Hints:
CATH class of the largest domain: Alpha Beta
Helix content: 25-40%
Shape: globular
Low-confidence stretches: 256-269
Largest sheet: 6 strands, mixed
CATH architecture of the largest domain: 3-Layer(aba) Sandwich
Number of strands: 15
Mean pLDDT: 86
Radius of gyration: 27 Å
Number of domains: 4
Strand order of the largest sheet: 9-12-13-7-14-15
Distance between the termini: 56 Å
CATH superfamily of the largest domain: P-loop containing nucleotide triphosphate hydrolases
Amino acid sequence: MTFAGLDIAEMSRLPLADLAARLRPAADGRRVRGTPTAARPERALVAQRIGEDLLGRVAVLLDLGLGYLSLDRGTPTLSPGELQRLRLATQVRSNLFGVVYVLDEPSAGLHPADTEALLRALDGLKASGNSLFVIEHDLDVIDHADWIVDVGPGAGTQGGQVLYSGPPEGLQQVDASSTRQYLAHGRRQPARAVRPPQRWLRLAGVTRNNLRQIDVAFPLGVMTTVTGVSGSGKSSLVGQALVDLVTAHLGHEAPEPTPDESADLDRTAPTPTHGRITEGIETISRLVQVDQKPIGRTPRSNLATYTGLFDHVRKLFAATKAARSRRYDAGRFSFNVAKGRCAHCAGEGFVMVELLFLASVYTPCPTCHGARYNAQTLEVRYRDLDIAQVLDLTVDRAWEFFEGEDAVRRSLGVLRQVGVGYLRLGQPATELSGGEAQRIKLATELQRSSRGETLYVLDEPTTGLHPADVEKLLTQLDGLVDAGNTVIVVEHDMRVVGHSDWVIDIGPGAGAEGGQIVAQGTPSAVARAAGSRTAPYLRRALRGA
């Protein structure tokens, strides 16, 4: 059985934009070429009704910028932003009213052009008689709101207060708000002198997913931003092809691609990278990929252990008079070592309780009450705090507590600079967002002595960041470049794009309509590029340049 000359498997592999084109004749009641003629008129009417319904469902997905996806696309290959837009499309078609929708950063991973489509869908839900509560950092989404609730003034223990609740224009009167200044001036990018490229890293014949035999040159010694609509091929080019080729030249084995490694995949299974480096690889001695993958998959991994500062903390406890008298070494203060940890929970701080007919739940350990350590270990104190209490300190509080301890404060200082001073030292990796994990990885790299000639690759580092935190991030990236390194960032935030020295715009569309270099050059040059969907938004960020 075929429809428009295709069987159901072939139809499922079509991009949604192509599927809509094939469904449109059936929805209009016209005979579809390549489809057997219906024996009775009533069957033709049924086919028309089905075609209308299917086309309506697909049209919503197209309006949300998902026309490059196919029906057989596996959900593990979808980005969080794509999944959220799929759920939103389901609600738009439901025609419900009187519903309260709660959305957590729906613009995450979206190009400004896709964000406009998202806002139109949200307006449709509101017009149908629904209420929308949106947690968001994107200035366009915030400015589009009818009511703003600003929480702060800081993060973690320094936040938690409702600073303002009312119409957007009233926020300008709240001095304690960090958001108000960006709503007034955040769209305009201050003029800055771009750094000239030192050399070039040239790639030829790159083929990966929707990239087809493209040649691209990345300037070295500067900060480059790769832009483009969602699904255009940015992550395929940078996070996969570039990383694979550089890794191979450095003599390391390229990591096996996983189905969920990119939001820009245009097929269910990732394809291998084809291409070659023709120039510039000899000036790169090291590759560092800073992505949003978790810093650990179990609660045993946390901020303190990942950054290495916990090694110094344990040595401080081992050097105390109480520890020396008991002959405790630094290993005693690790919750991964049997001699110091709680025997009941094996240092995890909680135990799993199996419930009949229900999912298992985790509760604090009844022996150590979440401290992770046994009573003997907790008797040793450093500056009046035991090791569990130290792990419960925030980065900002720990900075004050470890005054005079340069080895510990070096790590803490960098963590504060990247904007995660509100996190606890012992906060489990499973509780961290993708943006927090990425900043912790960046901080871990920044605390190392830089020798230059390192290529840093970051994938949307501003995800989940307030504009004030974005400024802190840019300061750190500038520091990496000034130290003689190269930074390449995949990003949608026009403030980051406008701050960079070089811009490579991929497109013009998504999926099969993308994968080409539309424009490249300085931010001001790309802002004037014809045919670039990024250019209008970049112009606005550059004060109309």
